[in-house]
């Protein structure tokens, strides 16, 4: 008889610079790991066309957001481009208590806050194959103002420099391979695989 080893599910935080492919990798991960709880962030920004409250974000006003902070309802929160963003604590705790691994996709500042709030959280950085690859991804579209691209690259350099703060690094050279590596980190190796 083989032993069925149960590992307590934990929270995994995915972070990485703009342009590294987080959305693509997470889209593939959703397909591969339907048992994973994906956290839905709270934001004070207005919904964009096609965004659904409770699916893409929980849309709230500024006073409600500040009330959530005061009540300790957020694992992390930050302001970006004039809007507030945060991760609700209760859905993550419910998923973990029910035995489901939970995944957050947030930026570096938020990852640091989660580390303080939940020290046993696993921090994973999604990294580009090379700096040149990331520069190519951010400049290749040619649709953004050069000053915006320069600022994103400056922030990306700072984020990548924080790699030693992370438990694991997944390089996104190929979306399916990166998603498979992330799945293994989130749910653990599949017995017999």
UniProtKB/TrEMBL annotation:
It comes from Saccharothrix ecbatanensis. It comes from the Bacteria. It holds the Pfam family Guanylate_kin. GO terms for cellular component: cytosol. Residues 9-187 form the Guanylate kinase-like domain. InterPro entries: GK/Ca_channel_bsu, Guanylate_kin-like_dom, Guanylate_kinase, Guanylate_kinase_CS, P-loop_NTPase. The keyword Ribonucleoprotein does not apply. SMART domains: GuKc (SM00072). PROSITE patterns: GUANYLATE_KINASE_1, GUANYLATE_KINASE_2. This is Guanylate kinase. Keywords: ATP-binding, Cytoplasm, Kinase, Nucleotide-binding, Transferase. Belongs to the guanylate kinase family. It catalyses: GMP + ATP = GDP + ADP. It is an enzyme of class 2 (transferase).
């Amino acid at each position: 008889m083989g032993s069925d080893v149960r590992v307590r599910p934990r929270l995994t935080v995915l972070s990485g610079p703009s342009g590294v492919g987080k959305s693509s990798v997470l889209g593939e991960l959703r397909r591969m790991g339907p048992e994973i709880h994906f956290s839905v962030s709270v934001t004070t920004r207005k919904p964009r066309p096609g965004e659904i409250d409770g699916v893409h974000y929980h849309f709230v006003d500024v006073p409600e957001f500040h009330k959530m902070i005061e009540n300790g309802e957020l694992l992390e929160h930050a302001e970006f481009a004039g809007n507030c963003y945060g991760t609700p604590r209760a859905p993550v705790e419910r998923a973990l208590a029910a035995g489901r691994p939970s995944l957050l996709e947030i930026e570096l500042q938020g990852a640091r806050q989660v580390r303080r709030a939940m020290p046993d959280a696993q921090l994973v950085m999604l990294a580009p194959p090379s700096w040149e690859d990331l520069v190519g991804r951010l400049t290749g579209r040619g649709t953004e103002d050069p000053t915006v691209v320069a600022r994103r690259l400056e922030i990306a350099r700072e984020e990548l420099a924080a790699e030693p703060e992370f438990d694991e690094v997944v390089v996104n050279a190929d979306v399916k391979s990166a998603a498979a590596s992330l799945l293994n980190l989130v749910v653990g190796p599949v017995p017999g695989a």
